Amino acid sequence: MKNISFEAQLLHIPYEKPDIYHALSMPVYHAVAYEFETAEAMEEAFCGRTKDHCYSRITNPTVQYFEDRVRSVTDALSVTALNSGMAAISNTFLTLAYAGSNIVTSPHLFGNTYSFLKNTLAALGVEARFCDLTNPEEVRARIDEHTCAIFLETITNPQMEIADLKALSGIGQAAGVPLIADSTVVPFPFFRARAYGVDIELISSTKYLSGGATGLGGLIIDYGSFDWSRSPVLKSWCGTEGKEAFTSRMRREVHRNVGAYLTPQAAYMQTLGMETLKLRFMQQATTCLELAQSLQETKGIVAVNHTGLEDNPFHAISQKQFGSYPGAMLTFDLSSRQACFSFLNKLKLIRRATNLFDNKSLIIHPASTIYGNFTEDIRQIMHVKQQTIRLSVGLEQRDDLLDDITRALA
Length: 410
Ligand SMILES: *Cc1c(COP(=O)(O)O)cnc(C)c1O
What we know:
The protein is an alpha/beta fold. The chain folds into 2 domains: 268 residues, Aspartate Aminotransferase, domain 2; 133 residues, Aspartate Aminotransferase, domain 1 (Alpha-Beta Complex). Helices cover 38% and strands 13% of the residues. The protein contains 15 helices and 12 strands. The strands form 2 sheets. The chain has a 7-stranded mixed β-sheet, with helices on both faces. Strand 4, helix 7 and strand 5 form a beta-alpha-beta unit. Helix 8 packs across helix 9, helix 11 runs parallel beside helix 15 and helix 13 crosses helix 15. Pyridoxal-5'-phosphate binds next to helix 4.
C-alpha cells in the first residue's frame, strides 16, 4: 500500500506465521529452545539455511516481530533488538572495529558510550579520535585508512550540539567510512536517518519506544547503504553476503558470542509502546518547546538550551534534520552547582531521576551523576557544566511543570 500512515503501517504488520488462536497481539514466546521434527530440519536451521528459530539468545518470535515492525516503518535492510542501548552500541563496534583501527567521534557523548569507546575499546587496541564533528574539515583531517566509523549522537546529550549529517556522510562516503548515528533523542518517524546518509542507526529503545520506561532495550538499524567491501574486517563477508555483510557478521558471530538479545517480555512491551510513539512524542516535544520558551523568561534561570528555540545556535540545522519539535529534552543553567542542588531538592512534582522520555518528567544534575565519576578536566572537554540541569519532559501539562520549577526557584 502506498501513502499509508506510519500508524496504519505499524499496527497491521503481519506475524511471520499466523497465530493458531488468532491472537490480536503477538504472544510472548517465553521459550528458550524450539523443537524440530527431524535431524535434517535441525541441521538446516542451525546452519542458517532455513529461518526456523533454534535458541532465544539468537532469535525469538516475539522479539523478531518487534524487529519486523521497526524494519517495516524505517524501510531498513535489517533490524536487531538488543537488551539495552549500550548493547546496541557495543555489538555494533565489536562488529566493525579491529586492533589498530580508530573511530572518529566527538567527546560529547552519553557517559557510558564515552567510557566504552575510551576505555573498553582502547584496551582492545581501538582508538577513539575525539574531534569537533560540527567542523567537517577537522573530521576529514582525522580520518585515515584505519578509520572504521564516524560516530555521533544526532543531538548530543546534555550539550545539545548538532552536526550536519549530510556533510559527514559525504566525507565518510569519499573515504570509505560508514556513518553511525545514535538517534535516541529524536527517533523515527520524526528523524529519517537514511535520508541523511546514516548507514547504521542506533537507538536506546529504553527511552521513547518503550512506552514510558517499561523496560530496557536497544536497536541496531542497518540501512544496507554502505559498501562493506571497504571495511577490512567485513571485506571477507562481502563475497557471500554482499550488502548484508555487517548484519551477517553481527548476527552470526558477535551477537551470539556477546549474548545480549532483547527478552520476549521487553519486546512485547516495546511493540506496544511503539504503537503510541508518535502521539507521546508530539505531546512531550510540544510541551518541551513551550516550556523552554517560558523558562527563557523565568527569573533565576541564566540560560535555556533546546534546539527548537529560535535563538539557539543549532536552530537552523535542527529544523532541517528534525523538524520543529526536536525532542522532549532541554537543559537550563542556574548560577552555580549549589543553586542547582537546592533547586532540585525543592521540586515536588518533577522526579529526581535519570532516564529520558518516561511519561513522567525527570530531572537530573548531569555533572554530579551521569558524569560524576569523570575528572573535572574531562567534564570540561565534554562541556558538562556544574551549573547545568537536564529535564526530560513527560506527559504533564506545561503549567504543572512551570509551577513546580518557579516554586522551587523562589
Ligand atoms: C540512554 C542512552 C543510551 C544508553 O541506553 P541504555 O538503554 O540505557 O543502555 C545511549 N545513548 C543515548 C543518547 C542515551 O540517551
